[in-house]
Amino acid sequence: MTADDLKKYFHTVKYLKPSQLFWQAFVLSKIPYRLAYEQTQKQLRYHSFPAVQKHLSYVIPFLDTPEVYLSRFDPDRIVQGSFCFLHQQQVVPNDVWKIPTQSHLWNFHLHYFEYGVALAFQYAKTKNLQYSERLSELIDSWIKQPMSGDGWHPYTISVRLSNWLICLDVAGDGLPESIREKMYKSIYLQYCFLRSCPEKHLLGNHYFENLKALILCAALFEDQKRLSTYLFQLRQQLAEQILPDGMHMERSFMYHKIVLEDLIRIVYLLKQMHIGCDPYLAALNQMANALYFAEQGLTRTPLFNDSANNEAKPAVVLWQTMSLLFGWKPKYSCCLDCAGYYKLQTDRFCLLIDCGSLGPSYLPGHSHCDTLSFEMYVAGIPVFVNAGTGLYQGSLRSYFRSTSAHNTVVIDEKEQAECWAEHRVARRTSKVRATCTDTFFSGRYTTYFGAEHHRRIQLESTGFEVCDSIREKHLISAKSYLHLADGFEVKQQSDTQLLIWGKGLMLTVTAQNCCAEVFSKGNLCLYAPEFGSIKKSTTLCFDAKQPCFGYRVTVHRRNEK
């Protein structure tokens, strides 16, 4: 191990909570998993399965039925043994639950059983037995697998338990009684396993997912003592994870939506059990309002900090569910000060800007080098976008987290922060602050190596202007990037002027105190709006040799000359 490696480890570990270090050591020792196996094996030996509270409903109207979400899975292909996750189609032989040629995340999806919900709904809709029989076959096969591997990871257990409970409700009599009994026994065993190894070494959305599953199962098996404990822990996590402005602390809009859905499921269940929900409803309303700030009027998830489309339920589905179940009414604001997100907006244009910290200091795993980056939409259509996430594993992970993959400035060919491995951050940005009105933004931060970047954005009736200033003792270079969404073409008219057209729009971009370049090849042009969907697009680069520079974007109607 080199000296640089040791520095990275030191600057990564020093931010962790003492409890995380304790639990990390505990996890590495394999003790929680051994305890979990022992507890589960004990249950198997003595067959001490409690009664099931079958009157509870785990299916939520509207939330679990949107076609846009269920259509991610093709029930007919699944019947034939072919699965598509992360845009990777794969034939999976019967009784095989690990595909070595696919990514770790792909195999996680195989164990999530979200596709099982799609099969259940397809059976309920058509009453065609091939769908319920295939669901039964897959569940029976999974139950017969050894208690090891990805299927028994605390996170996959947490996601699968919720999906199996939905399948039981939706498929109904389509699942034979023998399979239903096996499922309830397996759910209880998974619940016992999860109780011993929640992801306290990670915390964040993983631990929240664990708590959701534990609460659902504690209610299912009428485990009142543990239910009270888990609800207490949930309240603690809501205070920790939900910022005062309603944003989830990891600052990813995708994970924000996943956590919001988890909390909806919990509150829906508690209402059935006539348990007071006021603390949870307050958090729900705050989270829904934060989501409304981010996605109202847009057509997809903003691609900041490990966000992607079609991994979480669409915002409109979550809003509709909140309205129907809890009478939620949206409250709009122009910023999320605690999270560090700001919005400039007119009737036609919208700019969403990131000027926040990398996330919780002890949990920056989903953070990108995207400070002072923005996404720009015209009538809800994405025009300038962050590159996205791509995948968590593989050689491109470092690019998608890099400064150059976002609409911000690379100073002296260095990153804003030291993002490394799949989910690690060593030295970080600091002194992050911003002010914002409806049409003007000003923000600044300091890189890990001490350079200061100040950005001002003025939104106008015909477009917007970006002005950057860099403070660095020996400034060598500054490169500002603009990544186009797919579907646009670019023509370079001069060193300082570019013409962009597509999707019914025409734009001109004029560089100020810098030279404009157009890239259409290489990593700089990769665009991943969804996990596993990596497209080619076009990236603009504004190369400056002086500390103050910028560009102006003017949006024309197609009939304008």
CATH superfamily of the largest domain, by name, is Chondroitin AC/alginate lyase
> What overall geometry do the principal axes of the alpha carbons give?
globular
- Main-sheet strand order equals 11-12-13-14-23-18-17-16
Whole-number total of structural domains:
2
Number of distinct helices:
16
**Class derived from helix and strand content:** alpha+beta
Helicity range:
25-40%
Computed over alpha carbons, the radius of gyration is: 25 Å
Mean pLDDT: 93
Q: What is the strand tally?
A: 23
Beta fraction: 15-25%
Question: What's the layout of helices and strands?
Answer:
Layout: H1 3-13, H2 18-28, H3 31-46, H4 67-70, H5 75-79, E1 82-85, E2 88-91, H6 104-112, H7 114-126, H8 129-143, H9 154-171, H10 177-196, H11 204-220, H12 224-241, H13 253-272, H14 278-295, H15 315-326, E3 335-336, E4 341-345, E5 349-354, E6 374-378, E7 381-384, H16 397-401, E8 409-411, E9 419-420, E10 424-425, E11 430-436, E12 440-446, E13 452-459, E14 463-471, E15 478-483, E16 489-492, E17 497-502, E18 505-512, E19 515-519, E20 526-530, E21 533-536, E22 539-544, E23 548-556
Antiparallel strand pairs: 1-2, 3-4, 4-5, 5-6, 6-7, 8-15, 9-10, 11-12, 12-13, 13-14, 14-23, 15-22, 16-17, 17-18, 18-23, 19-22, 20-21
Helix pairs in contact: 3-10, 6-9, 7-8, 7-9, 8-10, 9-10, 9-11, 10-11, 11-12, 11-13, 13-14, 13-15, 14-15
